[in-house]
Amino acid sequence: MQSSVSLSKYVKKRTGVPLGASHSMRNMLSRSLGAKSFPLFWHYWNPIWSYYLSRYVMRALNKFLPSSLSVFITFLVSGALHDLAVSLVKWDIVVFFTPWFGLMGLIVITFSHFKVSYEHFTWHNRASINILIIVASMCLTYLIEGMYA
Fold first, then answer.
1. Lesser CB count within 10 Å: N end or C end of the chain?
2. What pLDDT is attached to residue 149?
3. Is 89 exposed, middle or buried (0-12, 13-18, 19+ CB in 10 A)?
4. What DSSP state is assigned to residue 118?
5. Per residue in 22-54, pLDDT tens?
6. In whole angstroms, what is the distance from residue 61 CA to residue 145 CA?
7. Axis crossing angle, helix 67-90 with helix 97-113, rounded to the nearest 10
């Protein structure tokens, strides 16, 4: 991401509508769920959050780490921030999102490396695949955490 790209330009590029527009959520959901690959799902998902992660985490890491490692660490940072938010709300330590997001980061890296694409499927099938990946990775995280609890 270029340093000159503003949040509003970034969001418009990801959703097709200006920041705060009435159809921005609908467009974000449609583009992300219907993405032709899991890496593209994350390209479109939550553009405001990804703008800041991209700008302040990914870009900094890319200066001295390989891109795939930067992607993985960025997912871990996002998960850790989600864990922190939930921990503050629950007033108890929560460590679920960090491993879950780390697992999804590994899936993104793997799918990118092997150029996994389901672009020839219908929107509904692509959405089902993307949701299945998210739910399966969440279930696997619950399973692994349960083994160590």
1. C
2. 67
3. exposed
4. -
5. 888 999 999 999 999 999 999 999 999 999 999
6. 28
7. 160
Helix crossing, 123-147 with 24-33: angle to 10°? 80
Structure tokens at 129: 């695949």
Tokens of 65: 């780490």
Tokens 């939550």 found at: 46
Centroid of chain to Cα 29: 13
58, two tokens: 């990914």
The set of long-range contacts for 73-78, using a CB threshold of 8 Å and a minimum separation of 24, is 74/105, 75/101, 75/102, 75/104, 75/105, 75/108, 76/101, 76/102, 76/105, 77/53, 78/49, 78/53
The pair of three-digit structure tokens given for residue 54, joined into one six-digit string = 């991209």
